[in-house]
Amino acid sequence: MVRRVVAAPLTPEEIARRAEVERQHRAAEADRQRQLRLDQALLETYRSLDDLDSRRDRELRDLDRSIRELRERESELVKRQSALISDATQTDDSAVAASLEEDIRTLDSEIITQSRVIAAKLRERSAVLDRFEEHRQRYVELMGAPSANGVSRNGRGVVPGSND
Q1: For residue 144, what are the CA distances in angstroms to 147, 159, 160?
Q2: CA torsion 79→81→85→86, rounded to 10°?
Q3: Which one of 12, 59, 72, 138 has the lowest number of neighbouring Cβ atoms within 10 Å?
Q4: Are 152 and 144 in contact (CB under 8 A)?
Q5: pLDDT digits (tens, 9 = 90+) for 75-123
Q6: Residue 20 DSSP label
Q7: pTM (predicted TM-score)
Q8: DSSP secondary structure string, 106-140?
Q9: Which residues are CB-neighbours of 88 under 8 A, at least 6 positions away?
Q10: Are 107 and 80 in contact (CB under 8 A)?
């Protein structure tokens, strides 16, 4: 005669716990796969740290040029508005003054819009710096290359001339 030992049926709490553990495992695996794809894309995008740095510098240069042009435009608008305000205070003709007042209001809204665009570009510049810093750190981790602080992936200091 053979006796078989059969486990007791799972309680609802055990079933829920088992399902939660399985869900966590699936989520962890999905995160791991996502990170692998991101890492592969990073390694395919940049050939070296110098390549990464040059791309960052190029994006920053383009943003800085755009910000400079926007600020110049804003400065021109402010000068034009100041001139119109000066003209409006010196004129006695109410029809001309009303026209100048409308132009001043229009310029005021253009200046506000310009300021908002500049603020958005400055936020974009900050985001570019953050993104490239994250990419740089991850690239160093993946390649095992010396980091900017002189400590390699194995934790030893980088010795000039060594093959660390």
Answers
A1: 9, 15, 16
A2: 20
A3: 12
A4: yes
A5: 999 999 999 988 888 887 777 778 888 999 999 999 999 999 999 999 9
A6: H
A7: 0.68
A8: HHHHHHHHHHHHHHHHHHHHHHHHHHHHHHHHHHH
A9: 97, 100, 101, 104
A10: yes
* Separation between Cα atoms, residue 101 and residue 83, nearest integer Å: 12
What distance in Å separates the CA atoms of residue 74 and residue 12, rounded to the nearest whole number? 67
Rounded mean pLDDT, 33-57: 95
Domain ranges of the chain: 13-45, 49-143
| DSSP-derived 3-state class of residue 69 | helix
Contact 146, 134 (CB under 8 A): no
Place of tokens 């029809």: 95
Reading phi first (left if > 0) and then psi (alpha if -120 to 50, else beta), residue 138 is in alpha
> Cα–Cα distances in Å, from 39 out to 5, 63, 93, 140, 142?
48, 26, 69, 11, 8
